[in-house]
UniProtKB/TrEMBL annotation:
The keyword Methyltransferase applies. This is 16S rRNA (Cytosine(1402)-N(4))-methyltransferase. The keyword S-adenosyl-L-methionine applies. Belongs to the methyltransferase superfamily. RsmH family. The lineage of its organism: Bacteria, Bacteria division WOR-3. It comes from candidate division WOR-3 bacterium. Its EC number is 2.1.1.199.
Length: 310
């Protein structure tokens, strides 16, 4: 049973059908919502490779897709695209989908501190077997590091004050309630509700090295995409969308959607989490490798190295 309703499914299927895509890579499969819809579209003559990095969420993906012979599930990160495809005997795909949104499962059921509305341990890792939880990472940050990541990854107001107070109390921070309490003392009440989601977003991006992984994943995707294949991205905040939009600067990646596609009113009412989603589509032509490498280096250098693992 799928509890997370995927966004903009009809728009995605429209482009896949228009470009007659048969071999599709879903890089952020989650519970399988998009993958199942795509598998139904391509039928037995097509193939969907569904990648999910979270080992617990992956179990849900396998269970939900077990009746689909045209879906192959892989527990891996999308930065390993080429390795994943090599293991299933595929060199090129017709379409690649990235949905960079946070799932209902992570917010409501993972118990890892993704939501400021729940009192949980401040872990925030998508894969609990890799890296360190946020509350441990915080011990290694300076107040300047905290200020930078709040500004760069969350565009948080009052970042300097919040960072100063977080740094002073970092040894006492272990649960989401600890982080929320410090935010309450640092941010005027009238701004708190709008800033808390951005604070948690910033620390989640930092904990999972999301920005670097996005840059690497998109570059890898361009490599394995067939000529005339399409790259589809779903972003939910300005940092993600700026990166996705910048793909147009790679020579040989043609922007199909001149403006991002937003969900229609009906979908927004039925699935409010899709409200901020922006869909972009690019077609691969002849790629200029130098241009792709320049794009890669430029985007990695947008943020201080202290906030990124490369």
């Amino acid at each position: 049973m799928i509890s997370h309703i995927p966004c903009q499914v009809e728009h995605i299927l429209k482009f896949l059908n228009q470009y007659q895509c048969k071999f599709i890579l879903d890089c952020t499969a989650g519970e399988g919502g998009h993958s199942i819809a795509i598998a139904n579209l391509v039928g037995k003559s097509g193939k969907v490779i569904a990648i999910e990095v979270d080992p617990f969420y992956f179990q849900k993906l396998e269970k939900n897709t077990r009746d689909f012979s045209n879906i192959t599930c892989v527990n891996a990160s999308y930065i390993e695209i080429r390795h994943v495809l090599g293991n299933v005997g595929i060199n090129r795909v017709d379409a690649i989908l990235f949905d960079f949104g946070l799932s209902s499962y992570h917010l409501e059921g993972s118990g890892r501190g993704f939501s400021f509305k729940k009192d949980e341990i401040l872990d925030m890792r998508f894969n609990p077997s890799e890296g360190e939880p946020l509350y441990i990472k915080l011990q290694k940050l300076t107040d300047r590091d905290m200020e930078l990541l709040l500004k760069k990854f969350g565009e948080v107001k009052f970042a300097k004050t919040l960072a100063k107070n977080l740094f002073a109390s970092k040894s006492k921070i272990k649960y989401t309630s600890d982080l929320v309490d410090i935010a309450r003392k640092s941010i005027p009440h009238r701004f708190l509700n709008s800033e808390l989601p951005k604070i948690f977003q910033a620390f989640r991006i930092f904990t999972n090295n999301e920005y670097t992984n996005m840059v690497i994943g998109l570059k890898e995707a361009i490599h394995v995409l067939s000529r005339s294949g399409i790259l589809i991205t779903l972003s939910y905040h300005s940092i993600e969308d700026r990166l996705c939009k910048s793909i147009k600067n790679v020579k040989g990646m043609k922007m199909i959607t001149k403006k991002p596609i937003n969900p229609d009113e009906k979908e927004t009412l039925e699935n409010p989490r899709c409200r901020s989603s922006k869909l972009r589509v690019f077609e691969k032509e002849e790629i200029d490798e130098e241009s792709l490498n320049d794009w890669y280096k430029f985007n990695l250098n947008l943020f201080p190295s202290s906030l990124l693992s490369r």
